[in-house]
Amino acid sequence: MTKWVLVFLLAAWSAPACASEAVAVCQELTLEVQGRGFYEREIDSCDGIKNCHERPDGSFYYEVPDTRFKVIEAEGGAECPAKGSLLDISEEVSSDQIRASLVAITSMGPDGIVSGMMLDHIRPMDPQSPVKEVSLASVTHIVPCGKKDTTMGSGAYDACCEGLMAVGVFAEGETSCEERQLSGGYACAACGDGLCEGPYENSCSCVQDCPGQ
User: Fold this and answer.
1) Which of 35, 58, 62 is nearest to 47 (CA)?
2) With pLDDT > 90 as the criterion, what percentage of the chain qualifies?
3) Do 133 and 127 meet the contact criterion of CB atoms below 8 Å apart?
4) What is the b/e burial string over 180-212, where b = at least 16 CB atoms within 10 angstroms of the residue's CB?
5) Which residues pair with residue 70 across a beta bridge?
6) What local confidence, expressed as pLDDT, does residue 111 receive?
7) Predicted local distance difference test score (pLDDT) of residue 189
8) Are 166 and 196 in contact (CB under 8 A)?
9) pLDDT per residue over 66-94, tens digit each?
10) What is the DSSP letter of 30?
11) Both ends of the chain: CA-CA distance in Å?
12) What pLDDT, in 10s, does the model give residues 34-66?
C-alpha cells in the first residue's frame, strides 16, 4: 500500500500544522450527491468565525457544510467502500458527481494522535466543467452498504449494496400495505430479479417480484 507524507493546514482542527502520514485507502471513487445541508458545531465564541450564531441560552455554534455521497464505483484498494455505501463530508460540493481518492490521515497534535478519513484530489466527473472543487475534505461519516436481507435505519435509506434495492418492511396480516408498514427503517432485498424470496420480499415491498402473493 502506497504511503506518502503531506503537510497541510486543516482549519477545522485546533492542532497546528504538522507533518501527517496519509495512507491511500482507495485510489479512485466515483461519488454521486444524495443530499446537501449543514450541521451545528459547538464553539466557545463567535469571534472571527463565519456562519457563527448565538443561541437563546448564550451558547455558540457555527454551521459546517455537510454533503452526502453514494459510492457508484470504487477502484484501487482492498479497503475501498463497497458500491452503495454512503459518505458524508464537511464541505460544500456543487457538482452532482465527482471523482476522488480516499485516504486515512494520522497526525500528531498537542493532545496526542489525531486520525481520520479524507477525500483527496476531488474533481467533477465532467472534465469540461468550469467548477473547481476543494482538493481536500474531511469524511465525517461512512455508512457501509447493506447486504441482502439486512435492515437499515431511516437515515441510511438507499444505502444498499450493488444489485439490491431498499424496500419497506411490513408486518404480516390481512390489512392494507399502508397499515402494515413499519416505520423507522428499510431492508435491502434483491427486488427486481424476478424471484419472490427472502424475508422482506412480498406483494407490498416488491410487487414486481411478488405480484400475486
Assistant:
1) 62
2) 38
3) no
4) beeeeebbbbbbeeeebebebbbebbbeebbee
5) 32, 86
6) 67
7) 94
8) no
9) 899 999 999 988 889 999 999 999 888 88
10) E
11) 51
12) 988 888 888 888 888 877 888 999 999 988 888
Cell numbers for 50, please give them. 463565519
Q: What is the C-alpha separation between 123 and 135, in angstroms, rounded?
A: 8
- C-alpha pair distances (Å), 93 with each of 123, 134, 148: 10, 8, 31
Burial class (CB in 10 A: 0-12, 13-18, 19+), 137: buried
Q: Where are the domains of the chain?
A: 3-143, 146-213
Q: Which residues contact 26 (CB under 8 A, 6 or more apart)?
A: 74, 75, 76, 77, 79, 80, 81, 101, 102
The two most distant CA atoms of the chain are separated, in Å, by: 64
